[in-house]
Amino acid sequence: MDSAANVQHLLDSERWNDFLESTAVGLKLNLVIIFPDLYSSVNAQAVCPVCKKSFAPLTPQQMTAALVASGSSPPGKIALNENPAVALPLRDGLCVVARVCNCSMEEDVQQLPDVAGIAQKLLSSFQTALAEGYSGGRRAIELTALRQMNHIILSLFRGDGDTVVKHALDLVLSALVILLDARGSWLVYQKGSQSVLLLKGDIEAVKAYLNSAQAPALEVELINGRGRMGVLDPDNREQATALLSYLAQECTIVFEIDHLYKLVQAQMTQVLGAIGSAVLLVDRHGNYKLRQLRRRPVTGCQSNYLNWAPGRRL
After folding, report:
1. Which residue stretches of the chain have pLDDT < 70?
2. Which ranges of the chain does DSSP label H, i.e. alpha helix?
């Protein structure tokens, strides 16, 4: 399939648009794919999840500036109205523009190049999967996609709790639909006493299967009985069996990270609750130092002293 056909395939693919939307939501970005030969673009997650303000569509001049910026070495930041943005190249001459809202915290703006780079690598991997299938470089495509999935899942956990878990799992299910050229996918897991069902792809077809089990599908149990995950009508059942197990492990990783995060938060609450007065310093990587203020008899102008606890990682 030549480049022009690949580009048209992306435009016509509901699975690709669904995956693009999942990536944008998961990484808290506005992602715009620019198709230069068609003078058009696809805008995912066009509304800021925080302030609900819409991202303006790119003008032809802005699309041209983004294409130029994506071809520079290294690709750099660009000015798109008031929104911080980065333009990066994709396969077949396409370009992805990653934006954050101007209401974003300074940390989100500083991390934009890194997070945009994750989105670029992931989208490029799935472009390859859609354009070339699994012929030739099948195994390499699988492993590359899974590595990028791990990066995204780890980057999502910033204290957003159950919403982050849902976004991460949604991204895994979208990846499953694209990689296996399937009609849909689903995940059932327990959240406390409730059962949660997530669906991607042809949702009505998946619901019909879950009610009747008449269509061709594959299903696996998650580790430790956390739930079950399945894919409907995959193009290659042999590959689906292997890849379904890999991505089921990714779901298990999401649950493990969430569990560990909650444990650390509970421990931090206990530690801080036992301290009368202290300053906690935390960097962007989760390393922290505890500076505790302890009272002692006044000597001259000094009324207290500072004691550093060992540096640790959250």
Report:
1. 1-4, 6, 38-39, 75, 131-161, 265, 267-314
2. 3-12, 14-27, 60-70, 106-132, 138-156, 162-179, 203-212, 237-273
Q: What is the DSSP string of 115-129?
A: HHHHHHHHHHHHHHH
Q: List residues bridging with 89 in a β-sheet.
A: 95
Distance, in Å, from the CA atom of 180 to the CA atom of 173, rounded to the nearest integer, reads 11
Inter-residue contact 57 to 213 (CB < 8 Å): no
- For 165-175, the pLDDT digits (tens) are 888 888 888 88
**CB-count burial class (<10 Å; 0-12, 13-18, 19+) for 26:** buried
Return d(Cα 45, Cα 24) in angstroms, integer.
6
Judge contact between 27 and 104, C-beta under 8 A: no
Long-range contacts formed by 57-61: CB under 8 A, 24+ apart: 58/32, 58/34, 58/97
Q: Match 């980057």 to its residue by tokens.
A: 155
Residues 72-96: pLDDT tens digits? 777 677 877 778 899 999 988 889 9
**Beta strands at 287-299 and 278-282: parallel, antiparallel or unpaired:** antiparallel
Report d(CA 102, CA 161) in Å as an integer: 24
**Which has the closest alpha carbon to 119: 151, 143, 159?**
151
- In whole angstroms, give the CA distance from residue 185 to residue 231: 4
Q: Are 149 and 172 in contact (CB under 8 A)?
A: yes
Q: What does DSSP assign to residue 45?
A: S
Count of alpha carbons within 13 angstroms of residue 261, beta-carbon side: 18
**Angle, alpha carbons 100-104-108 (nearest 5°):** 75
